Amino acid sequence: MAKSKTILKREHGKTRRDKARGKTGHNPTQDPDTSKDSETLDNVLADLDYEHIALGFDDSEQQESANRSVSSERPNINQGSGEQEQESQQNLEGIEYLVAFGELFDHLYPRNLHDKLQNLADGMAGTSFNTAARNSPLVKKFNQVVNGAGFQLIYPETGEKVRLRFIDPPRAKAGYFQLRTANSEQRGVYTGAGFPTLQITRSDNA
User: Fold this and answer.
1) What global pTM score does this model have?
2) What is the spatial distance between Cα 169 and Cα 154, in angstroms, rounded to a whole number?
3) 41, 52, 66, 170: which has the fewest C-beta neighbours closer than 10 Å?
């Protein structure tokens, strides 16, 4: 490699000296067009860095290219660690919220709520408060507790799951309680002035 560099440097110097003396380095009898091509080639070679030609390329550029390649392939350990910490923090917060909602649910719907609600339903069965203004909010509050606590209503006479609603026709002062099946058919199974007999159970989806 050192010999190649020395030879190239000598040729480089000789080319420059010949150009200074007005020599082309070719036979005077040579074709003029060919002589011009040679002069152009000499000019190009004179501007080249022979040391880089001998080496192939600059070592510093090679090292820089290698560093860029390794850097692009190396995983970002710090970033991965940060994402794991964030995910763990979110999991902890999710558990805390779940516990908080569980405590709130137990506060709103105590464990003996089913027994209390069933006792109320049994006590109201067959009764009416004489006016729609009283019967309508009664049904609304009853349904709020049943649905919120995850219960469902069963009509004992048919054993079907039902929904309770209140209807207020124009000529009925107290209105009517009505039960309809809790399926796509929504078939009516009870309509009357008195509160219907109901069995309260835990919802299948609860």
Assistant:
1) 0.54
2) 25
3) 170
